[in-house]
Amino acid sequence: MNLEALRDRNPDHWMKAAAIRALTLDAVAGANSGHSGMPMGMADVATVLFEKHLKFDAANPNWPDRDRFILSAGHGSMLLYSLLHLTGYAQMPIEEIKNFRQWGARTAGHPEYGHAEGIETTTGPLGQGIANSVGFALAEEILRARYGKKIVDHFTYVIAGDGCLMEGVSQEAIALAGRQKLSKLIVFWDNNNITIDGEVSIADKTDQIDRFRASGWSVFDCDGHDPEDIDRAIDAAKKSTKPSMIACKTHIALGSAAQDTAKGHGALTDPQVVADTKAAYGWKYGPYEVPANIKSQWEEIGRKGAGAQEEWCARFAGLSVTKQAEFTRILGRDLPKKLPAAIKALKRQYVESKPKVATRKASEMALEVINEIMPETVGGSADLTGSNNTKTADLGIHDIDNRNGRYIHYGIREHGMAAAMNGMALHGGIRPYGGTFMCFTDYARPAMRLSALMGIPVTYVMTHDSIGLGEDGPTHQPVEHLAMLRATPNSLTFRPADATETAEAWEVALEQKSKPSVLALSRQGVPAVRKDYKTKNLVAQGAYVLAEAEGKRQAILIATGTEVSVALEARDILQAEGIGTRVVSMPCMELFEQQPETYRRRVLPAGPVRVAIEAGVRQGWDQWLLGERGKSGKAAFVGMDGFGASAPAEVLYEQFGITAQATAAKVRELLGSK
Amino acid sequence: MNLEALRDRNPDHWMKAAAIRALTLDAVAGANSGHSGMPMGMADVATVLFEKHLKFDAANPNWPDRDRFILSAGHGSMLLYSLLHLTGYAQMPIEEIKNFRQWGARTAGHPEYGHAEGIETTTGPLGQGIANSVGFALAEEILRARYGKKIVDHFTYVIAGDGCLMEGVSQEAIALAGRQKLSKLIVFWDNNNITIDGEVSIADKTDQIDRFRASGWSVFDCDGHDPEDIDRAIDAAKKSTKPSMIACKTHIALGSAAQDTAKGHGALTDPQVVADTKAAYGWKYGPYEVPANIKSQWEEIGRKGAGAQEEWCARFAGLSVTKQAEFTRILGRDLPKKLPAAIKALKRQYVESKPKVATRKASEMALEVINEIMPETVGGSADLTGSNNTKTADLGIHDIDNRNGRYIHYGIREHGMAAAMNGMALHGGIRPYGGTFMCFTDYARPAMRLSALMGIPVTYVMTHDSIGLGEDGPTHQPVEHLAMLRATPNSLTFRPADATETAEAWEVALEQKSKPSVLALSRQGVPAVRKDYKTKNLVAQGAYVLAEAEGKRQAILIATGTEVSVALEARDILQAEGIGTRVVSMPCMELFEQQPETYRRRVLPAGPVRVAIEAGVRQGWDQWLLGERGKSGKAAFVGMDGFGASAPAEVLYEQFGITAQATAAKVRELLGSK
Asked: Which residues are in the Transketolase-like pyrimidine-binding domain (chains A, B) (predicted)?
């Protein structure tokens, strides 16, 4: 590359972009780790985007109608941090850049949502950002339809690398965005032809232009180092009626000795390389130094949206008081005041009707109430609508001609669905939930982890939660999945036992502002186990005494979901034999763990033998069987110790020994009275 | 559809295909569950494939050079079962068809590998079969290069549906196959335009033809109900120098009232519908009845490869004795006799050199020995070769011009890599291993579960196994992953502590014939903890006493991987204070669990307080802390209780309190002597 020619063509632009490149070199050298090449390669594109197109106001980073900028290629985090610093975000002073990748800094190795304003999502695991962006763009469409173009009208811009495009989830995202014609989604492909192992061609020869076109995208290209060409491409993309991909031909690690090589992908830390590269840029300043004239140009860019932001505030003030309040409420993730009473009314009704339904059906019954009260819910399923019971009567199908539709046909794309839901929750104003078979949490897993890591309230409706799925067999029967979900920090896994617990679980899930929830729901019908009306949400306590022992308390049965009724049956058998047996329903281990010790001891007192019953693996149960004063060690587990099988559900329960009889036998054995 | 016209055009073909359709209707009706539509739609394609093209011999189902038939759309299992029954596979008598989806039957809801010969892989989770098939085709290329075209020369045929093609993993598979020009891979796309939720277009408008072409495939199409057109398309595909996709225009649930509808996807069980549909086919026979003339035509198809099979045996007998023995050995998943001695020699060497290396580096050192002795290993990485240390010096890069290459650049495709490895292991003759960062087991998870469910010896080399990864931050730091892996039945998770344990872990992993293994390996260097040479493979016992207490044994520290050296340091501190402390290294919980109780008690005797140290979540540890006679409850855990952070590794260990000092403090606290 002839850097001088580039510089001479547009010196103002060049120096602004050079500031990004120099900060990147300094920060990576300072941290002695990181990724220099991508920010150095994409600095021109980002500069043009921020200067000429991105609608934002650095002084009001949370302005709801800002354009969103998603750095899908998250390893290039210094690109984002540089931009936030240069444009004057208060939370990104130069000290943060100097602390890149250090303990307590906002500038983590990869962008972490919540660390600093301006970081719209956590990226790093490749493909997630581009898949989130579909959710951002969907949220924009839905809210625009609801609140009007004067309140919601912005673009979602994404920078994606070759890694993002090789990950399968990108295909799910691309196809979904193309199908939904998300015309305000614009993806820049950093076409630098390099990955960690070498040139892209060692692993991929896909024609990305054709691939995007095949899924209904507009495709543009540009010289990623020519500001005018970049500007032209963005202008064209903004006019498209389809989502747009702009292929940006760039040079990774531009201007360094490692330019256009895999070495350039990683950390350039050699002082000589850093010095030579800066010299090649014509950058004569010390480490972390940005001269005042360049910084002030960048700060002007950071302020350029201020007027638009003020005009937006005026327009917002012109909305009806009700609309304003609603908009503020949903952006704040607050629940409508009506919800608690509606859930209570439902519970009261169940005490009367004692519905014997599958908990997936109970979930639908709860959603019928919730979706009517909460205009911010957006449901969907990965092509299992009738099985997941995720669609309620009043949710229209979201489509090009019905942007008010709040139900999304995600297609057979669990991963893309989960990532899109993350995007909607991050955008704000939407409470997304989506369903698939619980076994296929496996497919959605990378995005589900990010829901937890980011701390965002996405609700996963995972039905067919055990061998109770029956004939579809072991490929479709979760066995280890409850343990896996519970092992994940900062998330709640609910396995409600009946319609009442399901309604309560939904209420608790919706109350969360900073945690995702998984509802593990049954295929098969269950009897109502909660006979009396309780005002209190018992699921919120994680576990509670469902049936007390009669006579001397000799045994405690702890169960979740469909196995709670098995426990009650076992209790009947044991009580008939004079063995006082308490049944504890434990719909959410994580919440029970958070209860005061006094409450936990009251639910699980020392003394009686303990048997847990759950049609999954034992892992995670020892805490309640052997810990929590269960130190007698007189404990057993009734569940699965391997994969399932294909047969009718009731046969499987019998064959795998998850029955009231087997449970009662365990208790007798532990009591030494078999 | 005018079924009569179809029948009249080719009555022989029609009746053979009708037999598949009728058996499907009967079996689904009998089970009162299942998927009728796909077998009914694809019966013509399958009939032509089996009759005119598929090289197989029903009497010798495991003939190594058979063509492979992969039913990626696994819900259409009755298509496969019908074909196996009709062509005369011994393990698929009519009784199995009658027992479809029942306890103990070979005919599970979805095809399960190992249930019956002729089921080449387990499918049902969508996209897995097509992604497996890339591994099958790669294995064929590699073995053909090694043993010659006379011994290995077959096609891999796949039937994939819209669900398979919507799943992101299919893109990873398609791109990898296109890049590797796997010309003997032929995929039939069942283009029926229907998914569970409705028409494909509600969720997808991707032009699949363009999409496959963009990744370097040949694309053909055919009328999926016209046998001549199908035959022509297959002929053309077989001649292509690229992988081929044949778009088969079909009608789901052909001839039934539910034809071309989402209802037709599922179970057609209504007796009238079944009767009417059979009548429309001109099928006049009772349930499960196939008239002799049709059955005998099918059986002839089942025998048509017998001659080729015999000729193959003759050619095989012509190989050198050494080659024959090797081929037989690798197909039998037997280890070369030299391996144990070579591992022992390596261990002996380590006792001398006491290498202080990261266990990922130790894995490479073991692989240098293994790969030289085992020509059947095929390594690779999802674009992290230098970080995963998966490439040894003698492995050439597999490529179009180097089919002898045993190292595969999978690209940034963890899921596709895992599924391809499953395919290679299933094909036979290959022992695949592949690497990525352990955090990204999340991406590979659906295929990893299938390795375990199928019971096949794939080895996952998962490096950067904790917060020890450092600055890349929480998105890249596994915390819950050890628990998740250990929760998965029928798999082994190893976390070796040093070079010696890593060599032993590799040996145990390779000894497995029916289980996958995960090696969780460190980024950071560790000291040698095994000082003395032991002939015995101690890792094979799962856990063992690494350092005995001096004086009265008051505490047992249990640790894995990089935390074993932390435990040894803590022991030094405690012993200096007169607290007798044993250190147990536990590189594989699953194997320890399988040891006799006497051994387990010897390693973890009752009495001393117990502290486990692992830089992950506690879940899974209570079994060893509170169970196994640890009933005093005097136990504690030193590890993580949330996500990690971005900072240098040593800072993170300090900040999260995973240190020798913190461990010693826990012991003192438990002993009441703080």
From this structure: 357-528
